[in-house]
Amino acid sequence: MKFGIYYAYWEKEWGGDFIPYIEKVKALGFDILEVACGDFHNQPDDYFRALGQAARASHITLTGGYGPRAEHNLASSDPAVIEQALSFYRDIFRKMDMADIRSIGGALYSYWPVDYSKDLDKSGDWERSVAGMQKLAHIAADYGITLNMEVLNRFEGYLLNEAKEGLEYIRAVDRPNVKLMLDTFHMNIEEDSLVEAIRLAGKDLGHFHVGEANRRPPRQGRMPWKEIGQALKDIGYNGAVVMEPFVTMGGKVGKDIRIWRDISGGATLDQLDADVRQSVQFLRETFD
Ligand SMILES: [Mn+2]
């Protein structure tokens, strides 16, 4: 297993410059830096070549994440939105390829966060999403990119809320580069058993997010990390384990994630760094 962290732990806005984080996460003991792909369209090609070069120089693997905006919703009933989404993703994949990023995860099958003030049609959205995902998988395959379908809790999504639904979805899509993605934060709300959900995912698990129930870094809460690590070993998982902590308020990140109190307890930047350094060390010891 390789261990990573999502750069937004340190940010208040999505996007920004990922290059300085490569050395930072390397020094903190990580193998992987996960970046946000939603604003790739605002950066020129040269930036992605430089990003890839910096990662290679530091022996850091890059992975991508995206919580799709409504205009990129592959489940939309408006065919123009599907076309728009496919062309948006095509540009992302081209730039991921330049930076040597081979996996992207998130609610790629829908949009995020869901606006529940609108009516929703789960079965119709499911059918449209599966058809859209088959097209997207075909484009991604040209770049050797894997699409990881993140199962989300009910408050943030409605198509895939548990591992079982996620598996039904990827089986319906039936493309080798479309895999399941689980996140302990969401699983904690929806799954009867964290361990059983991981076992059910088995060989179809493509990406794994870790965090405590309140999104603190692993080690600081009550998640059964030993059992989670054992379940990953049991299914022979040797992919990415990426922590996705969110502990500070403010900006679009704080609002989208619903951080309404300072979960960090007034931590300084040095303390934030030390928390995740200890967390990744803990995960290595517990999972390996
Ligand atoms: Mn996640």
Outline the structure in words.
This protein has about 290 residues and is α/β, with parallel strands linked by helices. The protein has a single domain (about 1-285), classed as Alpha-Beta Barrel (TIM Barrel). The chain has ten helices and eight strands. The chain has helices at about 20-30, 45-55, 80-100, 120-140, 165-175, 185-190, 195-200, 225-235, 250-255, 270-285, and strands spanning about 1-5, 30-35, 60-65, 105, 145-150, 180-185, 205-210, 240-245. It has an eight-stranded parallel β-barrel, surrounded by six helices. The model has no long low-confidence stretch (mean pLDDT about 95). Manganese (II) ion binds next to loops. Manganese (II) ion (MN) binds next to loops.
**Parts with pLDDT < 50 across at least 5 consecutive residues:** none
Largest sheet: 8 strands, parallel, barrel
Q: The CATH topology, please? A: TIM Barrel
| SS elements, strand count | 8
Ligand list: manganese (II) ion
Distance between the terminal alpha carbons, to the nearest Å? 8 Å
- For the largest beta sheet, what order do the strands appear in spatially? 1-2-3-4-5-6-7-8
Q: Mean pLDDT, as a whole number?
A: 97
The number of domains is 1
CATH class category label: Alpha Beta
Going by helix content, strand content and strand pairing, the class is alpha/beta
- Measured as a percent range, the helix fraction is 40-55%
Please identify the oligomeric state: single chain
CATH architecture classification name: Alpha-Beta Barrel
Layout of secondary structure:
Layout: E1 2-6, H1 19-28, E2 32-36, H2 45-57, E3 61-65, H3 79-98, E4 103-106, H4 122-141, E5 146-150, H5 163-173, E6 178-183, H6 184-190, H7 194-201, E7 205-210, H8 225-234, E8 240-243, H9 251-257, H10 269-287
Helix pairs in contact: 2-3, 3-4, 4-5, 7-8
The structure holds manganese (II) ion.
The site of manganese (II) ion has 4 residues, from loops.
